[in-house]
Amino acid sequence: MTMANRWTPAQQEALDTRNKNLLLSAAAGSGKTAVLTERITRIAGDMESGIDINELLVLTFTKAAAAEMKSRVSASLTNKLREADAENNLPLIHHLERQLSLMGSAQISTLDSFFQSLLRQYFYLLDLDPKTQIMADENEGYLLKEAVLAEVLERWYEEADPDFLKTADLFASRYQDRDLKDTILRIHNFSCSMPFPIDWLKHLPDPYNIPDGTKLDDIPWSYDFLASIISTSEKISEYYRRAFEIMDQNDAARAVYSDQLSNEYSFISSLAEVSSWKDLYDLPSFTFARLTIATAKVLKPYKMLVKEFNATPDAETIKALRKQAAATYNKSIAPLIGISEDQWIGETRNMAPIVKVLSDITIDFTHSLSERKRQEGVMDFNDLEHYVLDVLVDKDDPAFTPETAADFPSEAALAIRSRYKEVMIDEYQDTNGVQELITSLLSSGDNRFMVGDIKQSIYRFRQADPTIFLGKYNDFSTNEAATDHRIDLNKNFRSDAAILSSINFIFRQIMTERNLELNYGAAEALYPGRHEEERPSDYCGGSVSIGLIDKDIEEAQNDNPKIKDMENIRLEGRLIAAKIRSLIDSKAKVMNGDGTFRPITYSDIVILLRSVAGKAPILLKVMGEYGIPAISDREDDYIQNPEVETLLALLKIIDNPLQDLALTAVLRSVFVGLDEEDLSRLRLAQKAAGAEHIWPVLGNADHILKPGGAGLVSSFLSLYKEWRLQAVKDGAAPLIRKIIADTDYLTYVSGLSGGEFRKAHVLAFYQLALSRDSGARSGLYSFLTELSRLTKDGRNFRAKTPSVSAADAVRIMTIHRSKGLEFPVVFLVDAAKEFNLRDTKATAVCHKDRGIGIQYYDEETHARWPSLYWYSVRSASERESKAEEARLLYVAMTRARDKLFITATLKDTIRSLDLWMASLAGTETGEVRPLPSYITSGAASYLDWIMPAALRHRSSKDVWDRLMRIPSYADDAEGDHSLFDISITPETSLLRADETADAAETEKQLIEVEETPETNADRFLASLPSEVPEDLSRRLTWSYAFPGAANTPGKLTATAAVKLRETLEASESDEPPYASEILAPDLPSLPETEEGEENEETEGMKETLPADYAEPPSFLSGGKPGFTGTSFGTLMHKAMEMIDFKTVPATREALRNEIMRLTESGIFTKDEEEVLLSERKYTNPVASLITFAESPLGTLMKEAETVRKEMPFSILLPADSFYPDCEKGEKIFLQGIMDCLLETKDGLTVIDYKTDRVMTEEELREHYKIQLQVYGEAAEKLLGKPVVRLSLWAFRLGKAIDIPLHRN
What we know:
With 1304 residues, this protein is an alpha/beta fold. The chain is 49% helix and 12% strand. It contains 53 helices and 31 strands. A hairpin with a 4-residue loop joins β30 and β31.
């Protein structure tokens, strides 16, 4: 990357400093590997240093890194040798030749392989069998742990200690103790990353033994919890500040709400300013009263009616803000403040015996497990580390304590210490406590060289401990004289300056020590260091683009998060694919390492996801649709793939043929090849024979099956006999090998789509069988039982499937996998995906320093609720998880060399932007400062960090204009030039032809697909004769004469028809379509409650659920009717259909009697009757019906010759009025239902009832205009009469709204 004379001063210092503990804090792309390699080469290549290459201990975390390091060092030494040769410097030549010959024994390796070599040397000190093997397969370890844990728990159940039984009850769910087992395994795994696990486990109950008379303020760990209350109060204050902003501009609103909101605000802000529990308990008591209602008297000076005022956007916003404030307070603060200090402390203290039990069981389990592993002669990587530690620590010294272990090296440690002159550790931010202690025992106290970047520590889930690096980062001095010296490498040679500035701009605002463990300041920032030539005009980079996809709220009815994720990924995939196509097609330029530019290729592009599970296949498919070659490093569960499932089914019936499901799978599969008819015949024959299973009738296949089928079965049965014999003789693997050989199965799966992956899956399955055969319990039966246990427990079988890295294709990978790589163009996808904080919500939460937080368990009621210590541990681990997520975001963003795209799908983009902007209102303008703490700590996704930060940048001005508000913007730090470009894409523009009516787009895609790189087929075609015979040409170039018709569906529902017509009208005018963008379902209105009353059931659902679903099902809500938007609308439609206004007089009495009569006769349910007869301020159905009956429209209905209600229609209409590209004369089949159709002498009147609460007359007219016009056309065609009037009856407004007729 850099030549010897091109090192930066900081790099130079890192190369030259000797005899110190050096912490090299190397930012992304700052050339740390180059520095490490060069340092090794310089030390070994320097004759004066007197250090040979095999006297350096160099430790890395991955085999790949170790191999790369070795090859770089030998290349570098070979270069030096060449130079020495040229100068004929004999002593140096000898020295370098010696170093190169020592390379073979140089200790440049992963921690694991170094530890293994130590054990091989010192196994006799540990009484360890030298043949002990390392279990590489996680599932093998899992089964072993399960078996041992079951025995341990059995012992505990027999002893029936009361505290243990109470613990078992706490974790029990439906007579199962799975939760208890998982908790013990989790505590055990956690303890394994500690240097002295048993010691850590013994101390778990300590925090629960709180002495009498202690106050909360005396307990240091209680402050985390207090801080979270304060943070929530800050968030609530923000809602009030926004309400006050509105009141500043609106006098009427101030007159109505100011007093009440000011009082509430003063309490909330004093809550946000407490600094101790005492302050908190000293605050006056507080509850939210009902919100003041506007009265005519207060509004009189402003010449407004109450109804008018309540309908203004300002009043609605203030009410909504205040409601959010109250809801947040009542949910997250009130229940906590209401608990007394004594109760918090008492409940925590009462859990001490249970924590003691968990600690004792886990210790018991740890001992039993290691005993069992010794018997079976196996160990895992954790054991390896602890065995090495045992070798290196002198525990027998009377002064030894676990805390001071580093000061007690054993003789072995001292021997190793004298062997190595310097200890170098790469990726130091990923070490854990055990590894840290080992490396410090092996170093002399001033010869450790540690390289890493705390901002890229992303392996906490594998028990890495970033606090080790952090501690040194804060303690080591940047002063050159210090023994413990820190050097910062923050010049980045990888990325475009604008990308670096933008990363700085975001992280300076979000990364603070208070929330994310580190203050991102001048020392942490990235500084551009790459050399580049004059940029071409078609350079692809220079900014960070954020692409938001706005999802239609009406359609977002799918609440299954998995399906929602998949939909979002598909949409984002299309947005990206279109972007990639345009980059490739326009030959945009990217920069080479040497500063020159070249056109982009597919392999310059990577798509990064937080996790690829289930998402990579969707992205691969979308890329395929756009003709973009793409590959993903899929770590799929190979057992769950059909090619392995079929093989597994075959093994099952070889073991026991009386398994109908497996047998049917095999018969239907390539092994036999029967079709559905054959299977039906077998099933019937089985029924006729009275057999319990299919197997017995198979032998008689000749008489049962079609001629072909019988032959297939008999050849299968002859193979089956051989396989059965083989299974008895040997393990599972030879059997699988024989099946594959006999049936040529691998060739078959390789020929299917994705053959390469499928083949890898089958081979991985074979490897699994092979490893199981070498175990204690081999054979087909035990292999199958083990598999079924593992799959039942939901374990994964992961195989690294081949990633074709050399290919010119877009790569799809997880952020974790991308660490250490770089790509010219990076797409960070799914940025709105919520963080996974599942672990922090469990009954027991583990933490390195805090131990275990457990919920309080009440024996009488068998209920559990959070205890104070659980809250404390939870907030600590949630903070850690979020800090880890922020570092992942940093890793993802720093992969990009030239261009970074971030995409996300939002349900209501404008509302989200509005919330993000609003939170910036109170912040100061000027230099870039951290965001308010509650924003950073309250983030639920990457977008919640990126957007508030990016929106403060001046380049986001377009968004400010769109929202008509200016945040307090921030300026870049000196020398930075960030550039963000934020775009919003409506979902509709990403839907395909069959999803909207965009046929032309498809044709365009088809044309683009053909431009794939040259393949063998192209070469073959190029060698063919140029003239094509005439008749062949005619046949091959024939095309259908009506392409438009071919792209037009045969049938439309009215809803879809309206949508099409709307899009069409919008495309002809310059105006964008009216905000609704989609029709027919009524807009969700708020639940029917009295003003200011909270409807508990639907609270919190409103924001996310469409109206039909806002209610829990009646069996859950205790059968009380709660009618919301659409369901209320449906009921009013039903009433209009069932009540005959010609015969029933329009009086309250008569209508009420009619509704009761209809309920008696079963037309309305009791619930519906209750709602229809309710007479509340805002919903009085009977009054609404009277208003209709007395209106001119009601009179028209009474006088009409015929009244058709809820009239379904199906009709053929000219297709070109919906699809302009379709040829004249083509018809389209349209279906729908009209609410009401009146026939009078002059013609037809179409009426549609609407119950929307939220719209004005003008909005309703715009929103439903096209729907009624489509209905009108259908009615004219059906009844052959002219339509004279289209009318909406708006119940909320109590009036008819006429719609202009549509005339072609």
